[in-house]
Every structure is written in structure tokens, then in C-alpha cells.
Amino acid sequence: MLFDISLETIWQHLFQLGIAFILALPIAINREHRSEGAGLRTFPLVTIASCAFMLVGMSVYEGSDAEARVMYGIITGMGFIGGGSIIKTNSGASGTATAAGIWLTGAIGLSVAYQRYEIGIVLSLVGFLIFQFSDHLKKDTNK
User: Fold this and answer.
1) What are the extents of the domains in the chain?
2) What Å distances lie between residue 15 and 43, 51, 70, 113, 129, CA to CA?
3) H-helix or E-strand containing 106?
4) Cys bridge to 128: 26, 84, 116, 136, which one at CB 3.0-4.6 A?
5) By C-alpha distance, which of 55, 109, 114 is closest to 78?
6) pTM of the predicted model, to two decimals?
7) pLDDT tens for each residue of 22-47
8) Residue 142: beta bridge partners?
9) What is the pLDDT of residues 119-132, one digit of tens each?
């Protein structure tokens, strides 16, 4: 047979990518609702891409040092992508929360790839709560 494809593995990866997608949605919906630059497309794509890269790395390198380098590359890449969302002006910087959110959703994807769903759930919940409620606190402290 030309391809060694396991239907069970396909379903497992589809399940994991689906979980990663779902866990990114609260943050994505919040950012989209608040008309931020990144939203319903960006955050879920970052999460499932991070998950997928790590799933491939885990499959190919199976616990070796190279697997850790794949994770390092994802973490660095998410920082690079997030850095592109930061705009510096004379009055300060904007986009730092979006950059942090991109990094956070990358971490969700990595957590799901390693089947550490509890970490992904906590990251999703805490990230959503910070985005949802910190604006009010930040505005109050700047008055």
C-alpha cells in the first residue's frame, strides 16, 4: 500500500483539532465583537495550526529532542506573528493584547496536541475573562 493511513488516527487528530478550534472561539468571538484586528479567523487558525504542527512533530520525532525544537519553533513563531500586530506611536503602543492573545491561542493548540485538555480549557477561560473584563478595569485606572 502506498499510504499507511489509519482511520483511527485521522479521527483522533480531527477530534484534537476540533477541540483546539472550540477552545479558541471564546477569545476569537470577543476580539471580533470588539472590532480588534484579529478575530474569528486569526485566533482559531493560530490554535489549530499550532496543534497540527505539534501533532506532526510528535508523530515524526516521538519524544526526541527534535520534538522539543518543534515546540520551541511554534512558540517563537507565535511571538513573531503577534509582534506584527503591535503598532508603536508617539503616544504609546497598541496591539499588545492581540499579540498576547495570539501567543495564548498558540499555547492552547500545543496543550491540546499533548492531550492536556485541562490546560487548554483553563487557558481559554482565563484568556476570555481577561479580554472580556480587563477593559473596564484598564479604563478606570487611566482616569
Assistant:
1) 36-85+94-132
2) 18, 11, 21, 10, 25
3) helix 96-113
4) 26
5) 109
6) 0.86
7) 999 999 999 888 776 778 899 999 99
8) none
9) 999 999 999 999 99
